[in-house]
Amino acid sequence: MWEPESKSESNTMNTEMDISRQPQPQPQPQPQKETGTLIGSKVKVKGELTGEGELTIQGQVEGTISFSNGEVLVDQGGKVKADVEARVVQIQGELTGTVSCTELIALRSTADAKGTLQAPRIVLEDGCKFTGDLDTESTGSIQVSSPSSTKQNKQKDSGDKDQKDDFASRIAS
What we know:
- There is one protein chain.
- The protein is 23% helix and 45% strand.
- It is of the alpha/beta class.
- It has a domain at 37-154.
């Protein structure tokens, strides 16, 4: 004799099978956020680097770097002998060359830089080392020397308080 219970069990199994056979929606690929470019501590590059976005240098670079609309970070341990053009440059390692920025150059406390820095805003943190020229475009060029020659210049100009006050007001703005 025919039993209705077995029919419902059969339908339940078929229903389950039908559900498992239906195509599953495929996940849509998510746009990946660009993380920037890293030149690692064991990498040495000679030549011309061009790009956009962020460039972090932990290794060694010699040549030219052009990230006109981007940011360049010379990380601690990074060594750069290059002319650099970017929107923002932060130096925590060593850099020798001309740096031209449209916004900001920041020498962090661990920086050791030699050359010419050109930007509307230049930050020199306490402890950084810098020898060369600073050009903030609005105040002209200021000659900066090594600590020993700075001490000699202070002795020569020891009575000129107005000149020192003018220099301090240009740095503060």
